[in-house]
């Protein structure tokens, strides 16, 4: 019985979900327990502040690289002060009308673990996974820190 429960919780721990937010109107409706959010719109300083207030457990925010270039320094510093990591990247092929979450499967997380266990460097692991999965470099590094090396 205990083994079954352990396997169940272990499998839950090894998947990661990014909540895709496509407009500022959605920010106030977010679950307070969201930890990783992808902003699919160009967020203002007020949007970033609202996001942090709506999701007190927030640990990372992913934004498209083009939006990262135009994001204000104040918003970036605010996230840093709040302990929220800012990640550059996209959610390729995700359709929000089907699911509001972009899921990174446990298969990908196990692949990261196996590459690291084989003795690959972090750089080699990131490059290989970018080719294999189309995940962003920042997101792969985040997964490494938060789930594989934790």
Task: Provide a compact summary of the structure.
The chain is an alpha/beta fold and 150 residues long.
Characterization of the model:
This protein is an alpha/beta fold and 150 residues long. It folds into two domains: 14-104, Rossmann fold (3-Layer(aba) Sandwich), CATH 3.40.50; 105-150. It has seven helices and five strands. The protein has helices spanning 2-13, 45-54, 65-70, 73-81, 106-117, 122-133, 137-148; strands at 16-21, 36-39, 60-63, 85-88, 101-104. It has a five-stranded mixed β-sheet, sandwiched between helices. Strand 2, helix 2 (45-54) and strand 3 (60-63) form a beta-alpha-beta unit. The longest helix is centred in the N-terminal third of the chain and has 12 residues, at 2-13. The protein is globular and about 45 Å long. 26% of the residues are buried.
Strand order of the largest sheet: 4-3-2-1-5
Give me the strand/helix succession: HEEHEHHEEHHH
**Tally of DSSP helical segments:** 7
Low-confidence runs:
1-12
Write down the overall geometry. Answer: globular
Question: Radius of gyration in whole Å, from Cα?
Answer: 16 Å
What oligomeric state do the depicted chains represent? single chain
Total domain modules: 2
How widely separated are the two ends?
A: 26 Å
Give the topology.
Elements: H1 2-13, E1 16-21, E2 36-39, H2 45-54, E3 60-63, H3 65-70, H4 73-81, E4 85-88, E5 101-104, H5 106-117, H6 122-133, H7 137-148
Parallel strand pairs: 1-2, 2-3, 3-4
Antiparallel strand pairs: 1-5
């Amino acid at each position: 019985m205990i083994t079954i429960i352990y396997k169940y919780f272990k499998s839950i721990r090894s998947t990661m979900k990014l909540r895709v937010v496509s407009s500022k109107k959605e920010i106030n409706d977010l679950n307070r327990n969201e930890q990783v959010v992808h902003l699919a719109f160009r967020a203002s300083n007020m949007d970033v502040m609202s996001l942090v207030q709506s999701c007190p457990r927030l640990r990372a925010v992913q934004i498209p690289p083009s939006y990262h270039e135009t994001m204000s320094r104040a918003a970036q510093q605010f996230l840093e002060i709040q302990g929220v990591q800012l990640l550059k990247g996209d959610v390729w092929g995700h359709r929000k009308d089907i699911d509001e979450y972009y899921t990174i499967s446990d298969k990908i997380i196990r692949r990261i673990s196996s590459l690291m266990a084989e003795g690959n460097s972090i750089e080699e692991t990131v490059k290989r996974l970018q080719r294999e999965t189309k995940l962003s470099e920042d997101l792969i590094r985040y997964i490494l820190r938060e789930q594989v090396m934790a």
